């Protein structure tokens, strides 16, 4: 089973990397670019076919390791 | 208009960060975790309502700045 976890910064949390990309894009001549926010994505292969268990496991992985839930949100998608 | 760009490593490109996460997850007691690959996600706000132009712009941004197309793939999604 394949899953994708997307970790993004919560609203209101400063994102200097996103800001730098914003400036770089406007420096390259792209007009009309508003806010840019950068996040992380994890593609994970899991054994087993139990979707409910997989989703619970993936959420536990996010809480324990993959995301800092103080400043980040995560989303779990199972393919 | 909001768009999300997902940049992932091409198959066959080594991903030491993903490997480290794999080991950390099995160290935390998560069984049945296969390959883990890490990528990046960019949430971009764009002015204008022309989806075709937005998609062309976003692809140009990936080619010029956001992705290293030698080793990375990108996907553009417009919300």
Walk me through the structure:
The structure is a homodimer of 79-residue chains. Helix content of chain A is 35%, strand content 37%. With 79 residues, the first copy, chain A, is of the alpha+beta class. Chain A has a single domain, classed as Phosphoribosylformylglycinamidine synthase subunit PurS (Mth169, Chain: A), CATH 3.30.1280.10. Chain A has a 3-stranded antiparallel sheet. The longest helix of chain A is centred in the last third of the chain and has 16 residues, at 51-66. The first copy, chain A, is elongated. The termini of chain A are close together. In chain A, 28% of the residues are buried. β2 of chain A pairs antiparallel with β2 of chain B.
Which helices and strands appear, and what pairs or packs with what?
Two copies of one chain form a homodimer.
Chain A: E1 2-9, H1 16-27, E2 33-46, H2 51-66, E3 72-78
Antiparallel strand pairs in A: 1-2, 1-3
Pfam families (chains A, B): PurS
Pathway (chains A, B): Purine metabolism; IMP biosynthesis via de novo pathway; 5-amino-1-(5-phospho-D-ribosyl)imidazole from N(2)-formyl-N(1)-(5-phospho-D-ribosyl)glycinamide: step 1/2
Catalytic activity (chains A, B): N(2)-formyl-N(1)-(5-phospho-beta-D-ribosyl)glycinamide + L-glutamine + ATP + H2O = 2-formamido-N(1)-(5-O-phospho-beta-D-ribosyl)acetamidine + L-glutamate + ADP + phosphate + H(+)
Characteristics:
79 residues, homodimer, three-stranded antiparallel β-sheet, Mth169, Chain: A, alpha+beta
